[in-house]
Amino acid sequence: MNLPVETNRLLLTALNTSDASFILELLNTKGWKTFIGERYIRNLTDADTYITRILSNPDVNYFVVRLKEDNSPLGIISLIQRPYLPHQDIGFAFLPQHSGSGYAYEAASEVIRQLAIAPKQPILYATTLPENSRSIKLLEKLGLTFVHEFTRDTERLFLYQTILAKEDTVSK
Q: pTM higher than 0.85, yes or no?
């Protein structure tokens, strides 16, 4: 996916170490801790280390979602190749003050659209906790469908998917 990506209101850019204060704030929100997990990011040094670790992992991509009008960061969209899934997993997290404005849908739907243009994988997954009703609602609005429930490291998860392309049209 070529960055930056623009929508009507948003700009998606690659995560970099200049985003440390934003990542510090995001990872310490109640939503992140409840639905994604505690990452013990307590200061800017921790946030910088966290970002550096993400950037060094070819299986993890974080896109910072920014408001186009002032470039302020609102949230992230992630694409992660998890070792227990055969295809990438899309995820999203937004600062609480920006929830309910349609930003997550706008950003995630554009990422999915971009991935479908020249898909490297035929299927895109998403995982969520069963109690994360907002995430489930967004996944369904994005056109992902429930596949099944599974347990990973004692945690119950729902798996959703969308078809990006037929197997024989996937670019190598």
A: yes
> Which pair of structure tokens corresponds to residue 102?
């349609």
User: In whole angstroms, how far apart are CA 27 and each of 7, 35, 60, 66, 76?
Assistant: 25, 11, 16, 17, 11
User: Which of these, 60, 59, 57, 63, lies nearest to 16 by C-alpha position?
Assistant: 63
Domain 5-169 is in which class?
Answer: alpha beta
- Is residue 97 within 8 Å of residue 115, measured between CB atoms? no
Span 55-108, pLDDT tens digits: 999 999 999 999 999 999 999 999 999 999 999 999 999 999 998 899 999 999
List pLDDT tens digits, range 114-144.
999 988 889 999 999 999 999 999 999 999 9
Q: Where would I find the H helices in 65-124? A: 103-117
